[in-house]
Amino acid sequence: MNGLSVRTKLTAWYGALFLVAGLVLVVINYLLVQSTLPDPARFASTAVAGDVAFGVAQRPDALSPAPAVRLVSGSLDEYRSSTLSTLLVGSAVALVATAALAVLFGWLMADRALRPLHDITSAARRLEAGKLDRRINLEGPPDELKELADTFDGMLDRLAESFDSQKRFVANASHELRTPLAVQRTLIEVAMADPDVPAELKKLGTHLLHTNERSERMIEGLLVLARSDRGLHARTPVRLDEITASVVRATAASAAAAGVTIETRLRPRTVAGDPVLLERLVTNLVVNAITYNASGGWVYVEVRGDPALEVRNSGPAVPPEAVPTLFEPFRRLGGAERTGDTRNAGLGLSIVRSVTQAHGGHAEAQPGRRGGLTVTVRLPPA
């Protein structure tokens, strides 16, 4: 924990204020006692004068008035200094002992005063997107801490209502997205069931069915991810190198059409996660690397330990200050090479980042030294 805790600061303030108040009392007490004790010289002169008046100084063994005044004054001055020193030392010892007790009681009182804040902090740390039923329900007088706890509970009520509304929206969107895909799949299957369908049309139908199936799986995966605020509910061991090899084979035709060469170095790498989402992650990276490239360019895809996946490509130079914005939804580089580009929806790298975070990893990008972009994805091992 950086710095001092609030409890320590409050205890320090309690102790400091008590010491200041104690010092003020000691000084006032010292001044009062000092002013109350008689002046040695004046008291000695008065006492000797009284003895002379009553004839005490006329005895043969009595001292003369002047030496007697000095003797009495010295004795009284020593007594006065001893008394004030004893008072000062005793007050200092009492002040230190009482200050130690004040610091101890201040520490205990600060803990008692801040306990509701600890309850609020603990409740906030236990919150999850799917578990917003926890409340503080602080009991006690209607003071500032009670008001803070009640305000926090009210905020949780509003958040829970907002998440419930979001879940209903996701469920409705899921239905609206899956229904057209199911209708398309049925129409394609019915058309392909006709024995008079030409071979070219049947090949096209097979490709459409495969695309339709992948779209359905992708929608299911994204909806699961949208419903989860803290990642995936279920994870399975996934061979990232095999998924990457499959994606490279699937995109080989589009790379050849764009005049881009794909090079790979795929080492065995197993991660825990969702195979559909991981396939979409790799697909987005490879497709982006092909799309935002130049004729005769290259794409290099590598799977290894750390980072788990790295995709580099040639192409136009990317300004370093523009790289962070590429991970935002519906954002493209503002240069001529991407302005007005309708080939993608601007969600490629934002989906990459979301999927990576859902798997407990981290995605980052940096400009290539000779143009293009280098994207690295770090994923925890299975």
From TrEMBL:
<keyword id="KW-0808">Transferase</keyword>
<dbReference type="InterPro" id="IPR004358">
    <property type="entry name" value="Sig_transdc_His_kin-like_C"/>
</dbReference>
<dbReference type="InterPro" id="IPR050428">
    <property type="entry name" value="TCS_sensor_his_kinase"/>
</dbReference>
<dbReference type="Pfam" id="PF00512">
    <property type="entry name" value="HisKA"/>
</dbReference>
<dbReference type="InterPro" id="IPR003660">
    <property type="entry name" value="HAMP_dom"/>
</dbReference>
<keyword id="KW-0902">Two-component regulatory system</keyword>
<keyword id="KW-1133">Transmembrane helix</keyword>
<feature type="region of interest" description="Disordered">
    <location>
        <begin position="359"/>
        <end position="382"/>
    </location>
</feature>
<dbReference type="InterPro" id="IPR003661">
    <property type="entry name" value="HisK_dim/P_dom"/>
</dbReference>
<feature type="transmembrane region" description="Helical">
    <location>
        <begin position="12"/>
        <end position="33"/>
    </location>
</feature>
<keyword id="KW-0597">Phosphoprotein</keyword>
<dbReference type="InterPro" id="IPR003594">
    <property type="entry name" value="HATPase_dom"/>
</dbReference>
<dbReference type="Pfam" id="PF02518">
    <property type="entry name" value="HATPase_c"/>
</dbReference>
<keyword id="KW-0812">Transmembrane</keyword>
<dbReference type="GO" id="GO:0005886">
    <property type="term" value="C:plasma membrane"/>
</dbReference>
<keyword id="KW-0472">Membrane</keyword>
<protein>
    <recommendedName>
        <fullName>histidine kinase</fullName>
        <ecNumber>2.7.13.3</ecNumber>
    </recommendedName>
</protein>
<feature type="domain" description="HAMP">
    <location>
        <begin position="111"/>
        <end position="164"/>
    </location>
</feature>
<dbReference type="GO" id="GO:0000155">
    <property type="term" value="F:phosphorelay sensor kinase activity"/>
</dbReference>
<feature type="transmembrane region" description="Helical">
    <location>
        <begin position="87"/>
        <end position="108"/>
    </location>
</feature>
<dbReference type="InterPro" id="IPR036097">
    <property type="entry name" value="HisK_dim/P_sf"/>
</dbReference>
<dbReference type="InterPro" id="IPR005467">
    <property type="entry name" value="His_kinase_dom"/>
</dbReference>
<keyword id="KW-0418">Kinase</keyword>
<feature type="domain" description="Histidine kinase">
    <location>
        <begin position="172"/>
        <end position="382"/>
    </location>
</feature>
<dbReference type="Pfam" id="PF00672">
    <property type="entry name" value="HAMP"/>
</dbReference>
<dbReference type="InterPro" id="IPR036890">
    <property type="entry name" value="HATPase_C_sf"/>
</dbReference>
